[in-house]
Design goal:
By secondary structure, the chain is an alpha/beta fold. Helices cover 43% and strands 12% of the residues. The chain has helices at 35-48, 69-86, 99-109, 125-132, 158-176, 193-201, 203-207, 221-224, 235-247, 258-276; strands at residues 14-20, 52-56, 92-95, 113-116, 137-140, 181-184, 214-215, 252-255. An eight-stranded parallel sheet has the order 6-5-4-3-2-1-8-7. Helix 3 links the parallel strand 3 (92-95) and strand 4. Helix 3 (99-109) packs parallel to helix 4. The radius of gyration is 17 Å and the shape is globular. The termini are far apart.
Length: 277
């Protein structure tokens, strides 16, 4: 199947719905392993206002089991078979760091967005694949690997260091020929709780680099550890930080809870419209 040209419309804030095809993601409520579960999740997300679906077959939480490229592709393919059948016009991103997985997905299911937690650091071939196949590319900031990242949290200035990282990375990605780039600051990846909030406070600086910014902090430890609760109890905190992300210029919220995020976006747009009248 030849990939069609896929271009994301991020002229207004969007909601990305998480579809985890893994048995061990950190939030149990997001796990969808069977075809019926995937279909229910995808259709509900679309009905509730998701602009796109983010399919992940490899859990990147600290301590997660390693998964072979073959198993990862099998999981992602299971989801895409359902999504392409039921929601053929819905943009889909694949949360992977492997170029091999991207190429196989596109060959079988057509164009997708590449959502790479390592911005090419774990497998440089993924950047080549995205460039050659003309796929939108989400580049996230992380140090090390999911297994080692939480030991790599020394920064002179976490906001400045992340912004500087992306300035350099953008030159490299554009030099490779990547058409559309979205930046993800990587909340929870090689950052302490305090650094996550410092990074959120400086999110406008990342938005100032001229690329759309994805804010992915749904139900993460920066919320439930700060509130001394569990991921299940962290929805209100997720909504609050989603609003702050939008306020600072984020173009997309990656979430488990689509209706609440879509409502947040709607209220944010009404607020801005009324304020500017």
């Amino acid at each position: 199947m030849n990939p069609e040209i896929l271009e994301l419309d991020l002229t207004r804030p969007r909601v990305m719905a998480i579809v985890n095809v893994t048995p061990d993601s950190f939030y149990a409520g997001s796990r969808t392993f069977t075809a019926a579960e995937i279909e229910r999740r995808a259709m509900t997300a679309a009905d509730e206002g998701a602009y796109m679906l983010d399919v992940g077959g490899y859990s990147s939480r600290p301590g997660a089991d390693d998964v072979s490229a073959e198993e990862e592709f099998s999981r992602v393919a299971r989801a895409l078979e359902v999504i392409r059948r039921r929601l053929p016009a819905m943009p889909v991103s694949v949360d992977t760091f492997r170029g091999e997985v991207v190429r196989r997905v596109v060959a079988e299911f057509g164009a997708v967005v590449v959502n790479d937690i390592s911005a090419g650091g774990l497998d440089p071939a993924i950047v080549d694949a995205a460039a050659e196949l003309q796929l939108p590319y989400i580049a996230m900031h992380m140090r090390g690997t999911p297994a080692t990242m939480q030991r790599l949290t020394e920064y002179a200035d976490v906001v400045g260091d992340v912004v500087d990282y992306f300035r350099l990375r953008l030159k490299e990605l554009r030099g490779k020929g990547i058409r559309q780039i979205v930046l993800d600051p990587g909340f929870g990846f090689a950052k302490t709780l305090e650094q996550n909030y410092e990074l959120l406070g400086g999110l406008h600086r990342l938005c100032g680099l001229g690329c759309p910014v994805l804010s992915a902090l749904s139900r993460k430890s920066m919320i439930y550890k700060a509130l001394d609760c569990t991921p299940v109890e962290s929805l209100a905190g997720t909504v609050a930080l989603g609003w702050e992300s939008l306020r600072q210029g984020a173009s997309m919220l990656r979430v488990h809870d689509v209706k609440e995020a879509a409502d947040t976006v709607r209220i944010f747009e009404i607020f801005n419209r009324e304020r500017n009248d």
